[in-house]
Amino acid sequence: METAIALADEKGLAGVTMSAVASKLKVAAMSLYRYVGSKDELLTMMADAAAPVPPVQGELGWREYVVVWTRAQLDHLRGRPWTLDIPRTGPPSGPSELRWLEAMLRALEATGLSVGERFNIAIALSGYAFAQAKLVHDLATPAQSASEEFASSAGYAAMLSAVLDERDYPILTSLARVDDFGSWKEWVRDPDFGFGLNLLCAGVESLIERSSGPRSAP
């Protein structure tokens, strides 16, 4: 697995083929199928194996830990952007994914929320980190974007100004005129990334308040 991850770090996901991995290991490509059923399975295992251990909560409250936990996922994904190209086809199942999930379930335990609610919160936070990392990565690599116009916030604003009808999109038109989308390179830093994360935390707090409030008689 280390060999495949090293190839991905060096050449991106396109450089990871069964033959390339076999060549590095000096074995026949077909021999790899004794350990993995397909390349897709290999990629899934790689993404899980490449993940670091989750941060320790220590004395942090649940909200503080949510920030640390989510940012740690974001930093990992940005550090290994090839993981962003591996489709997520289901809930956490690999050893590393399950460790991260367990850490968040434990951190939210004192909130009084049910295990199911805590599970859904963890999935939402993980999805947010992935979506933000993917967005920034795609915007920073215009050759892979839908258009080179999206290479900067200014280009995006110019495109919107050219195509929007102010009568139908008055707010977006106004926003495009002043190019107030922020810098792509700073998208994941405060206040941009933190803004969305604070919204998610506010939603968790609201859920906690509803769960701990007076309940109507059955």
UniProtKB/TrEMBL annotation:
Residues 17-36 bind DNA. The keyword Transcription applies. The keyword DNA-binding applies. Gene3D superfamilies: Homeodomain-like, Tetracycline Repressor, domain 2. Pfam families: TetR_C_1, TetR_N. Coiled coil: none annotated. Residues 1-54 form the HTH tetR-type domain. It comes from Antrihabitans spumae. This is TetR/AcrR family transcriptional regulator. InterPro entries: Homeodomain-like_sf, HTH_TetR, Repressor_TetR_C, Tet_transcr_reg_TetR-rel_C_sf. Keywords: DNA-binding, Transcription, Transcription regulation.
